[in-house]
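Box 3.1. Reading complex inputs
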Amino acid sequence: MSVAGSSDFDWSVRSEVYRVFAETGSSPSFEQLASALDASPTQIASSVAALHDAHEIAPSADGSAVWMANPFSATETEYPVETPNMTCYANCAWDALGVPAILGTDGWTRTRCQESGVPMEFGVRDGQLAGDDGVIHLVTPPRDAWLDIVFT
Amino acid sequence: MWALVQLWYSDRLAAAWRGRSAEEGQTIMDAVGLTGEFWRLV
């Protein structure tokens, strides 16, 4: 992990990305971030790149948008999470639990086992972990997660 | 798993968040009993 190299402005960008995800379930565009932070989209792109280096945010392949702000995904995934205030997409089963954890709310996921295709649901209800029994298989050791965060 | 996820994510919306070092992450792993090589961060 790396915490060095990010400016106060970079952290402000991160905060705004997460704020919008938490409130709406969707990622802000670079234009929306620029407007909110009185900056240019180019400055936002530079900050997102720096935040990627700091293992905080993953940009899209072309660097023009936020792709992941873990546990949130900017794109539709197999892990929709319904919360009391919004529905969002998580990047994986681990992040599907990460959504209620980061929000401090309930959150429920209806998905399918990626191996067998069997429907399953799980999440947090009334503050308690609940749902179908299952296994979350982590293939990548956490220390290597950001070598390829998309694969992870 | 839920204990780990909560420790991992519960403070990440804070405006004061400035990242977490590998050592700090290791403290979380140790706290939930994940001490095997797969879980080592440092």
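In summary: Chain A touches chain B at residues 1-3, 6, 11, 14-15, 18-19, 22, 54-56, 71, 94, 97-98, 101-104, 124, 129, 136, 138, 141-143 (CB under 8 Å).
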